Amino acid sequence: MDDTEDLNRLIRELNTGVRGDAGADAARLTHWLRALAERGGSDLLLVAGAPPAVRVDGAVLALSEGPLSGEEIAEAVLPALNAALRSRFQQGEIADGSYKVAGLGRFRINLHRERGRAAAAVRALPSRPPRLGSLGLPPGTEALTRLPRGLVLVGGPTGSGKTTTLAALVEEINLRDARHIVTIEDPIEFEHPHRRSLVEQVEIGADAPDFPTALRAAVRQAPDVLVVGEMRDSETMRIALAAAETGHLVFSTVHTGDAASAVSRVCDSFPAERQPTIRQELSMALAAVLTQMLLPRKGGGRVAAGELLMVSYGARQHIRKNALQHLHQEITLTRKAGSATLEESLARLAREGIVEVDEARARAAHPEDFETALRTAP
Fold first, then answer.
1. What is the pLDDT of residue 4?
2. N or C: which end of the chain has fewer CB within 10 A?
3. 79: Cβ contacts below 8 Å, ≥ 6 apart
4. pLDDT for residue 304 is more than 80
5. Strand intervals (E) in the chain
6. pLDDT per position as a tens digit, 226-266
7. Cα 24 to Cα 18: distance, rounded to the nearest angstrom
8. Sorting pLDDT into bands at 50, 70 and 90, what band is 377?
């Protein structure tokens, strides 16, 4: 909304029940979500000055409606959020929450502002976690679920499927092992039923105020596996590192594109005087780095290509010395342990006919390595 007073009045009406129940007020949002489901899309995008749009196989397609105003977006989306998230948005913050619609499933809502107006991105969440083998990631990725302890970082840009990969890793452990798993998410995207494992899912904002508080509490709950939805701050990173060093298997995500930048992202989050100590701790705690991207799948849909570094003695030495430019070569040196370069992953997807060769070639960071991998049978 452009007018702050109108936004405040709308939120007051929602919180006091003047506007009726959330289900009735969110009818327009539900209408758009139904259109998203009918088209098999992944995201609903609401931006002031443009019609509502859906993302289908990576392409953004406008629905046959007129342009929306910021006020219309706020009126459609705010009723789907709880009072705490509405208050957060009212205070100028970004509101992240989940929303369930009978017959359509669960959705993740991100309500934010752009140019002073309300805007929203709503992502459809699968009804159950995916199986790891269906994602297209390097075969060695399954070994991450068998690690006894350590920190595993999953990197990639926004929308690259990191949360989906975390869910698939948890599902693999849940189906196979009798373990205690605690996930900390903002918001919860995939609901994990108790299978062989006991799974607790903590939602930031609903079950705990922030990641550090939730993570401190989780460590005291005797978990075998901890899943931290995102490493947003140095305190969360510090606790996660300590947990990984003391015998827990910790999975988390970072917004980075390769192993070197993932390590840098963690270390650079701390003051300069602490970074040598953090590099030492990270060199001991880090077990693996998986970075990924999504590509169009032949015949529709998308598939992930990934680069996997299984951390060995050599990589630990490079991290300690801050010689991160050498981490890429460690991938080829630890191939027998399951490591794989992005180019090998892209070439495998192209050879198997899952993606177009030209599409895979365009995504390769090292073109010559891709051509070699494409010609070489596994």
1. 62
2. C
3. 14, 19, 22, 24, 25, 26, 29
4. yes
5. 43-46, 53-56, 59-62, 95-101, 105-114, 117-125, 150-155, 180-185, 198-203, 225-228, 249-254, 286-296, 302-310
6. 999 999 899 999 999 999 999 999 999 999 999 999 999 99
7. 12
8. low
Mean pLDDT of the chain: 92
Residue whose structure tokens are 């699968």: 126
Token match 């951390």: residue? Answer: 311
Tokens encoding 124: 């459809």
CA gap 117, 94 in Å, rounded: 12
Q: What is the pLDDT of residue 84?
A: 84
For the record, the structure tokens of 341 come out as: 């370069």
pLDDT at position 300, please? Answer: 85
Model pLDDT, residue 83 = 87
In angstroms, the Cα distances linking 352 to 137, 211, 336, 347, 378 are 13, 40, 21, 8, 11
Is the Cα torsion angle 331, 337, 339, 340 positive or negative in sign? positive
What region, left, alpha or beta, does residue 168 occupy, with left being phi > 0 and alpha being psi -120 to 50 degrees?
alpha
Domains of the chain: 4-125 (3.30.450.90), 132-340 (3.40.50.300)
If you search the block for the tokens 């880090």, which residue do you land on? Answer: 286
Interior CA angle at 290 toward 241 and 250, to 5°?
A: 30
Token pair 């299978």 is at which residue? 195
Categorise residue 228: left if φ over 0, alpha if ψ from -120 to 50, beta otherwise: beta
Give per-residue pLDDT as tens, 163-215: 999 999 999 999 999 999 999 998 888 999 999 999 999 998 889 999 999 99
| Sign of the alpha-carbon dihedral angle for 182, 186, 188, 190 | negative
Nearest to 140 by CA among 365, 294, 349, 341: 341
Pairing of strands 150-155, 286-296: parallel
- CA 332 to CA 346: how far, in whole Å? 15
What letter represents residue 307's amino acid? E
Percent of the chain with pLDDT over 90: 79
Residue 67: CB atoms within 10 A of its CB come to 12
Q: How many CB atoms lie within 10 A of CB 8?
A: 12
Average pLDDT over residues 32-56: 95
